[in-house]
Amino acid sequence: MKILSHLLIAFLLFSSCQNSNNQHSAQTNEFEHGAVVAAHPLASDVGVQILKEGGNAIDAAIAVQFALAVVYPNAGNIGGGGFMLYRSHDGNVDALDFREKAPEKSDKDMYLDADGNAITDLSLYGQLAAGVPGTVAGMVAAHEKYGSMDWKALVAPAIKLAKEGFQITSMQAAEFNKHQELFSKLNVDGAAIIRSEAWKEGDVFQQPELASTLERVANEGRDGFYKGETADHIVKEMQRGNGIMSKADLENYQAVWRKPVEGMYRGHRVISMPPPSSGGAALIALLQSVELYPLTDWGFQSDSAVRVIVEAERRVYADRATHMGDPDFHRVPMKELMDNDRNKARMKAINFAKATPSSEVLASKFAGYESEETTHYCIVDKEGNAVSLTTTLNGAYGAGVWVKGAGFLLNNEMDDFSVKPGVPNLYGLVGGKANAIAPNKRMLSSMTPTIVEKEGKLFMVVGTPGGSTIITSVFQTITNVIDYGMNAQESVSASRFHHQWLPDQIDVEDAAIKADTRKSLEQAGYKFHERGNIGRVENIIVLPNGKLQTGADPRGDDVARGY
Ligand code: GLY
């Protein structure tokens, strides 16, 4: 009887949190053989087409990456970079770093004026904001190691979309219109996206220059981007503005295979991205920090759950700011950052009656954050191979510069470095020496492509855009599934909140955290900052019957497709 009444209470608590806190629709889809969840319906279609033609998850991921460069120019890219996490059907895991890097002529003070003040516009807009792009090298490396289909067949759908054009969605029309002034200012010689009349839903967007660049990539592989005509266009674009990227920078760019990071959460193995992304280590530290607390009993976005999560986030982001950077340039204390005992022990000091001010939380000492535009997609193929891939230009439309003659956007990833200690970047993140600019160094990222196993089997494939909020959105999606029993769609639709140490505030989506809970938290010293959407999470859950349950974030045009 007692057990039954506990179950009833748990059920009522869970149903009420589901009804009151999920701001978006939660219709979930299930597919038998393969699934792709991406930020644009046409990109998801391309991925499923490749899977149906017999391609594996890596083949589909390559085709989706190129398709997104055409149909989702705010973040899909060939002029940016990203991270791919892969798990084969038999459990082998691998991580591909195709993050941009600083050009050889870069310098730690390159965004400071004569008085040493940061000029952050320079790291955000125009040619000087761009890091050396990694996407094409990354896709070639992925294909060489794990691809099964002909390379040209994987680039072909993107070429067709660029050449023939595609009908834009209403969300895209609004986005394109919003950025016209900036595009006209930064692209004096024009670009396909710039036009005098307003864009509207259903207009066809054609990109002939991009189609030619993609044809070179299809025919010549990495040389089609890093050498020859495309490289010439990039270097000329640098000269048109104040850019410093050289032909040597392009030729020398290499994608790097890295060992994924992993940790356990309530019996699940969580596998994620190592540095130069802070995402994996920070995600694992967050999960370790909250694991001793009864989140399920407390309930979704309950007073106690929010306190514990925010206090964990505050501490983990303080460590991120101090200790994390490109591991090829700076020793990142990974073991210490993901030390289960340390992360649990320091949570013992939290005071449930009172917020800990961020000024009192210092990074641990060890011996020896737009538009937050990035995009994520998840793929599982018929054999159970899985890809979780986050790719970015950094801010929406990156540096705002289309490479004249080559038709693609340059990233503004240089802003992900700490341009000066303590000066916040686009996402309000601060950093120091570990993430200072140096030639050929990769800028610290928050991208967190993640795969979760349960009982040794593939369980979840998850990730999101959102700058500094990426880590906390992936964290909340995992707890939504594991602690709150949500399905894939509910887990991404549910409202979200975020804390990143500095600024000392809880960013909340409109529907996040009920009014009475907020009031009680405010009385304890927590400050709230209302903002728009946080992230656009995609999620695939493998059900016990082997079906693929999908969650596509309703905050955007995101769509799950499968067969
Ligand atoms: N550009 C966003 C990130 O890498 O975290």
Automatic annotation (TrEMBL):
Cited InterPro entries: GGT_bact (IPR051792), GGT_lsub (IPR043138), GGT_peptidase (IPR000101), GGT_ssub_C (IPR043137), Ntn_hydrolases_N (IPR029055)
E.C. number: 2.3.2.2, 3.4.19.13
The species this protein was found in: Sphingobacterium corticibacter
Self-association and partners: This enzyme consists of two polypeptide chains, which are synthesized in precursor form from a single polypeptide.
Signal peptide: 1-20
GO molecular function terms noted in the UniProt entry: glutathione hydrolase activity; leukotriene C4 gamma-glutamyl transferase activity
Record field: catalytic activity: an S-substituted glutathione + H2O = an S-substituted L-cysteinylglycine + L-glutamate; an N-terminal (5-L-glutamyl)-[peptide] + an alpha-amino acid = 5-L-glutamyl amino acid + an N-terminal L-alpha-aminoacyl-[peptide]; glutathione + H2O = L-cysteinylglycine + L-glutamate
Keywords for the protein's UniProt record, in alphabetical order: Acyltransferase, Glutathione biosynthesis, Hydrolase, Signal, Transferase, Zymogen
Binding site for L-glutamate: 99, 392-394, 416, 445-446, 467
Domain of life, source organism: Bacteria
Post-translational modification comment from the UniProt entry: Cleaved by autocatalysis into a large and a small subunit.
GO biological process: one example: glutathione catabolic process
Name of the gene: ggt
Active site annotation, chain numbering: 374 (nucleophile)
Protein name: Glutathione hydrolase proenzyme
The keyword Signal is annotated on this UniProt entry: yes
Family: Belongs to the gamma-glutamyltransferase family.
A Pfam family assignment: G_glu_transpept
Gene3D superfamilies, sorted: 1.10.246.130, 3.60.20.40
Pathway(s) served: Sulfur metabolism; glutathione metabolism
PROSITE patterns per the UniProt record, alphabetical: PROKAR_LIPOPROTEIN (PS51257)
